[in-house]
Design goal:
This protein is α/β, with parallel strands linked by helices and 605 residues long. α1 crosses α14. α11 links the parallel β14 and β15. The chain folds into 3 domains: 176 residues, 3-Layer(aba) Sandwich (Rossmann fold), CATH 3.40.50.2000; 170 residues, Glycogen Phosphorylase B (Rossmann fold); 212 residues, TIM Barrel, CATH 3.20.20. 41% of the residues lie in helices and 17% in strands.
Length: 605
């Protein structure tokens, strides 16, 4: 049985002992995800918030509540960095006992930005889930847009909760192949059709009254001022016994109350304030129509919950709402900020005879269990395809140190004096399956490269080796037998170098002094002995890891995240299919940066 993936979730949108309904959608999703993997969660709280425990257990999930610092209402473009600095030490401490494989951040800003910085410092893959306002609203501000865009490009995957949100992510520069669309789910056991009379009796609501229901925060983005005006228009035209009930709280409550008095409809509008989450299914089942008049949205869970209860929805066609209310079987959509259109939609929906159980049945496939199964697939894929971009600093230090103590030009890996020039080098050929195809690509693109050949492979595939020379590529030696150089002594290593160079001269008639040891294994004495024998040791400045990675996309992604420098020597291999598939994209990337391809001789001349 495969090992379960260990996931660390980071999000400020999660319940705690003071806010039981905060980010309830995240609680539902991650509780289901925890059935597929080992999961712990960091739900930071503002530095000024009191009486919240440093950690607690919520539905079997261990939840940490570190404090995070920010400057209220000012310097908002720095919130992602404040988030990072507030959490990095806590996350590192968690890692000591919980060796997580991946970080999953829910809410792009500041959580996603800060979490990407944490993941890169800890060399872990990172998925960021964008929810709606975090992209639709925050990216309207220049600095925040730049920070969100540049940071999310570094994430392994970005999850959008609607196709509309995916389009917005692409507009700010996130590559399409990095984005996965995963609509929100619903608790189908909790949100299901119930007897309307019983639900109304629970809240002492009259049975002979028609009810339009809104649930959400009383904030400008929800379009509630337009809803109040639309309800007034509708009420004046119908003269029926109808109520508008608003469940939720927020800064607009006083303004909306005054607006009901302005339209003389205060007796028909009820502000119920925040309600326990367990009561929400009863509120929905008590109504006739659910309305969400938002100006901007992601994938609003409350719409899915209303449909799951079998209620028709009147909403605006913004964000991910059209992906939920997909036909007139579910209700009607209107343009935002249009009270007249809303009023007409109310007229139409009240005239229809709705099949509530049919609406509920059509939406039941959007369960949180199914949602978590799909999310787990994205998580596993991101872990499996993770590309390790960390550089071995000890090896870099030793390489530079070695170059200082051996003779000049006896060990080479770049020539920074060659402006806008780069050398592609291929090891381990000639290979009967792949070298010819690599040569075809180079010929089609008009590129000259350098091939480090294995002596015994030259004898087996002599025609391919001759083709390399005929097409005016450079060649060098890559040992005779390609044994593990780390197990050989200096004399044996020198013998491999000398013999492979002799094979190149005898079989191909070419004199070369380029030698690349297998695995890049070098020592002072080895390089010094090669130097005395007029053999130059050639390493590389950048390893594409094409012999290590499992997919072509890992190879190209590693290349595309590397900051190219003048005179670099790029290491590739011509003995596998992954390199063959990745090579055109690597060439396009390097060309796109304004570099010209040259042979090793041209680079080092």
């Amino acid at each position: 049985m495969p090992k379960q993936t260990r996931v660390l979730v980071i999000t400020n949108l999660f319940p705690n002992n003071k806010e039981s309904t905060r980010g309830i959608f995240n609680k539902q999703q991650f509780s289901e995800l925890a059935k597929f993997c080992e999961l712990k969660l960091v739900a930071p709280v503002p530095f000024y918030q009191k009486d919240i425990p440093l950690q607690e257990e919520i539905e079997g999930i261990k939840v940490y509540h570190p404090k995070y610092f920010f400057t209220p209402k000012i310097l908002r473009f720095l919130y992602g960095y404040f988030f990072y600095y507030s959490l990095i030490n806590k996350v590192k401490n968690i890692y000591k006992d919980f060796k997580f494989d991946i970080i999953l951040a829910s809410w792009a800003y500041p959580d996603g930005v800060g979490s990407v910085l944490i993941a890169k410092e800890m060399n872990k893959p990172i998925i960021v889930k964008a929810m709606g306002t975090d992209i639709n609203l925050y990216t309207k501000y220049f600095l925040r847009r730049k920070i969100i865009s540049s940071t999310l490009k570094k994430a392994d995957k970005v999850i959008a909760v609607s196709f509309g949100l995916k389009n917005r992510l692409m507009q700010i520069g996130i590559p399409e192949d990095k984005i996965e669309v995963l609509l929100n789910g619903v608790n189908t056991e909790l949100f299901r059709p119930l007897e309307q009379a019983e639900c109304r009796d629970k809240f002492k609501l009259p049975l002979d009254q028609k009810i339009i229901l809104f649930i959400g925060n009383l904030v400008p983005v929800k379009g509630l001022e337009y809803l109040i005006e639309a309800f007034a228009l509708f009420l004046n035209e119908t003269k029926d016994n109808i109520s508008l009930i608003l469940v939720g709280d927020g800064p607009l409550k006083q303004k909306l109350t005054l607006k009901t008095k302005e339209f003389n409809i205060e007796k028909n509008v009820q502000f119920m304030g925040k309600q326990p989450y367990g009561d929400i299914p009863y509120w929905i089942n008590a109504c006739d129509i659910f309305c969400l008049p938002s100006i901007s949205e992601g994938c609003p869970n409350v719409v899915i919950e209303a449909l799951s209860c079998g209620k028709p929805v009147v909403a605006t066609n913004v964000g991910g709402i059209p992906e939920l209310v997909t036909s007139k079987e579910f209700g009607l959509l209107v343009t935002s900020k249009d009270p007249n259109a809303l009023a007409k939609a109310f007229h139409h929906v009240f005239k229809e005879d709705w099949e509530h159980h049919k609406i509920a049945e059509l939406i039941r496939s959007n369960s949180w269990a199914e949602n978590a199964r799909k999310l787990n697939g994205i998580v596993r894929s991101s872990v499996d395809n993770f590309t390790d971009f960390s550089e071995n600093k000890i090896k870099i230090f030793l390489k530079h140190t070695l170059s200082l103590i051996v003779s000049k030009n006896s060990i080479l890996w770049e020539n920074s004096k060659k402006k806008n020039k780069i050398a592609l080098t291929f090891d381990d050929g000639p290979n009967s399956d792949f070298t010819g195809k690599v040569l075809d690509i180079l010929k089609e693109r008009g590129i000259k490269a350098t091939f480090f050949l294995v002596g015994k492979e030259i004898k087996t595939n002599k025609e391919l080796a001759e083709r390399i020379i005929k097409e005016r590529h450079n060649i060098g030696a890559h040992s005779y037998s390609h044994n593990n150089f780390q197990k050989l002594n200096v004399r044996e290593r020198l013998a491999e170098a000398v013999l492979s160079l002799k094979v190149i001269k005898d079989e191909l008639g070419v004199n070369t002094d380029f030698f690349r040891p297998p695995q890049g294994t070098v020592s002072f004495f080895q390089v010094n002995q090669c130097c005395h024998n007029k053999i130059r040791t050639v390493l590389w400045s950048f390893d594409t890891c094409d012999s290590k990675y499992k997919t072509p996309s890992q190879i190209t992604r590693r290349m595309e995240t590397h900051k190219l420098k003048d005179g670099e020597i790029i290491l590739l291999h011509d003995d596998n299919a992954y390199t063959l598939e990745a090579l055109p994209k690597i060439i396009d990337f390097i060309n796109g940066k304004g570099f010209e391809f040259v042979t090793l001789s041209e680079l080092l001349s």
